[in-house]
Amino acid sequence: MDKAALRPVIFEILRRTPQTHLHAIENEIRQRVDGYERADVLLVHEVVWDLLVQGVLAPGKNSLNLHLPFVHVTEYGAQSLEEGATLAHDPDAYVAKIAEESGGRATPLVVESGRDAQLAYSHGLYRVVVVLLARAADDVRAALAVALSKGSKRDAQQAETSSIEALRKVLDRLELPADVARDIDPQLGGLETAILLSRDRDGTQQVPTADRDRALALLLLFPGQCGFVYHLIDRIERERGAKP
Q1: Rounded distance, CA 26 to CA 29, Å?
Q2: Average model confidence (pLDDT) across the chain
């Protein structure tokens, strides 16, 4: 087995039993997971140790069992184990989410920047998270600018500036379905927020201000924002290709 297969099972066990013991976790996995072998216990311990380092777990179970191998889910850990939030502590699932949301169109720069941002978050490097996601968001923005620049002369001139504001103006002139048009501002606004946290509007780089909550929000929202833009590009390209 590998850690990618074990993480979701461990997350589920911890949701149901927030105060537990390493051996209890391992015993439950042995009963629930096909193909689990005795040697895989080391991988279970590695995942649990990762969660301890990341603050999802802490040593101890109660006042009588304060030390390892007893563990408990922290207050932050309880939030992290909510549906969807586990992506911040699962690098394989996070990268898979980007690929799924983007329909496989995310560039290597976007995918690897996302992977590194997740790893940076798990090590408490919140400024690094912001910088990496800004880099990825900028690549997604550039892809949309290229797609829009292939339209009318007016669209091309505005898209060439590549600013989110200019791209919004071009999109406003397109005949997009109401549900898509409704999501343009929040989705592109999210990408713009990520970009502007690490640089000024004139492109000047700046030292980002970021805490755990902001880094987590950016990390969890990015796959959906990325997917929205790539599907929007697909729609634009299909509609242009269908016109005589």
Answers
A1: 5
A2: 89
Token reading at 94: 């996070």
Among 160, 193, 181, 174, which Cα is nearest to 239's? 174
CB 71 within 8 A of CB 59: yes
Q: What is the pTM of this model?
A: 0.86
Domain boundaries, the chain: 3-80, 86-242
Residue range 24-54, pLDDT digits in tens? 999 999 999 988 998 999 999 999 999 999 9
Q: Is the pLDDT of residue 157 over 60?
A: no
CATH of 3-80, one of 2.60.120.830, 1.10.10.10, 3.30.43.10, 3.30.70.270: 1.10.10.10
- Give the whole-angstrom CA distance, residue 25 versus residue 18: 11
**Cα 239 versus chain centre, distance:** 29
User: 80 with 86: CB under 8 angstroms?
Assistant: yes
Exposure string for 155-194, b = 16+ CB within 10 A, e = fewer? beebbeebbbebbeebbeebebeeeeeeebeebbebbbbb
